[in-house]
Design a protein that fits this description.
The chain is α+β, with helices and mostly antiparallel strands. It contains eleven helices and ten strands. The protein has three domains: 74 residues, SH3 type barrels (Roll); 112 residues, SH3 type barrels; 109 residues, no CATH class.
């Protein structure tokens, strides 16, 4: 105890992790073993003075449990202590059994910033963060935790009754279910949450989980998953509520509070497309598929259409809307062409740029959609041909622009 830097101490009838600031000896009439500790309560920035007999050394094995409890203190529930077995007794040997953090009742309510479980469509329950709570409507907005999560995203609106607290009784069963198809992904989520709680408990970070995710302190954990694009598959979870006109409203008008601005819709599509770009360029996941087409080992509808189109200029739908993303993919495809496809184009005497845009680009994107969305080639091709799904607001603005241009010509 004399050399401990961090302790567990009792203050206001609770057990708190604290940092030792100073030690003060008691009077000679007291036992030599006893002294006062000036400590700072972690996460509260509160300095208090306690007796050494009312404190225990904070061990690494306790930190995660304590952080888990601290993470829940935003709710109205509190920790309760067992009156029979007091946590803080007179300190004995240093290797004694660590103090037990006793019964914690799972909160009945959900608060902003809480970690929860939510089941989306056919996928297993997945960890999420509560963004907002609407008590009257009995609903909450949650943001799923994943490798490319946007901490500023709005999340999706779900009924409160469909949420489970992250540390609920069924936690292990939910983890086991998620591991069946997404073992590495759910393991990463748990590692991220654990790291957040440990840092919260140790006082190296204070703030919400989303603030932690956006901060540099979480980069080592985030980096481990963002560099492993091929080996880790996340469920295809929804990031924002779909934008739909409100049925039953007069003249089909939509509620202003439900509008999703075009830049948000476009940004959401760009984030989704970034996974395709990284699969193609960084992971080189479509390369074997492209080489097989270039060497005539695999049939290609796009190659056949290209050969039958003659020298006419075709209108290319790139699927990718962001110019930087498109440039990265095209430059990569140029490299693949130079290594493999130059002999084919020499034989058919075709334009290299047209060949890349009309054949290699759609084949690469379709292959990436198939891998990222975990669908077959035909389904991925249908999604590619259909193109980006524009929001209601974007279509409305586009129609207004056309009307304005027509009026100007008239």
């Amino acid at each position: 105890m004399t050399d401990a830097k961090y302790v567990l101490c009792r203050w206001k009838e609770r057990l708190w992790p604290a940092k030792v600031l100073a030690r003060t000896e008691m009077s000679a009439t007291k036992r030599k073993k006893e002294f006062f500790l000036n400590v700072q309560i972690l996460s509260l920035d509160k300095k208090v003075r306690v007796k050494s007999t009312e404190a225990k050394i904070l061990r690494k094995s306790h930190i995660e449990d304590i952080a888990s409890l601290l993470d829940r203190q935003s709710s109205e529930e509190s920790m309760e202590f067992d009156p029979i077995n007091s946590i803080l007794e007179e300190e004995e040997e240093e290797d004694e059994e660590p103090p037990r953090i006793l019964l914690y009742h799972e909160p009945h309510s959900f608060e902003v910033g809480m970690l929860v479980w939510h089941k989306y469509q056919k996928y297993p329950f997945w960890p999420a963060v509560v963004k907002s709570v609407k008590r009257k409507e009995k609903k909450a907005s949650v943001l799923f935790i994943e490798g490319h999560m946007d901490p500023k995203g709005r999340g999706i609106t779900v009924p409160l009754k469909r949420l489970k607290h992250f540390d609920c009784k069924e936690k292990q069963a939910l983890l086991n279910e998620a591991k069946e198809d997404f073992d590495q992904a759910i393991g990463w989520c748990v590692s991220l949450i654990t790291d957040y709680r440990v840092r919260l408990g140790c006082g190296s970070f204070s703030g919400s989980f989303l603030e932690y995710y956006a901060a540099n302190i979480s980069y080592p954990v985030r980096k481990s998953i963002q560099q492993d694009l091929l080996g880790t598959q996340f469920p295809q979870l929804c990031h924002e509520d779909p934008e739909m006109p409100v049925s039953g409203s007069p003249w089909g008008r939509r509620q202003p509070s439900r509008k999703v601005l075009p830049d948000r819709s476009r940004a959401a599509r760009d984030r989704a497309n970034q996974k395709l770009v990284e699969y193609i360029v960084k992971a080189r996941g479509a390369e074997s598929h492209l080489r097989a087409i270039l060497k005539n080992r695999k049939p290609s509808k796009w190659l056949k259409t290209f050969l039958n189109s003659g020298q006419y200029v075709t209108c290319v739908e790139t699927y990718l809307e962001d110019e930087e993303q498109l440039d990265l993919v095209v430059k990569y495809l140029q490299g693949v062409y130079q290594e493999t496809g130059s002999r084919m184009l020499t034989q058919i005497n075709c334009d290299r740029i047209r060949f890349i845009l009309d054949v290699l680009l759609p084949e690469a994107i379709i292959c990436a959609i198939s891998a990222v969305d975990q669908v077959d080639y035909k389904t991925a091709e249908e999604k590619y041909i259909k193109g980006p799904l524009l929001s209601y607001r974007e279509k409305e603005i586009f129609d207004n622009q056309l009307l304005e241009e027509r009026n100007q010509r008239c």
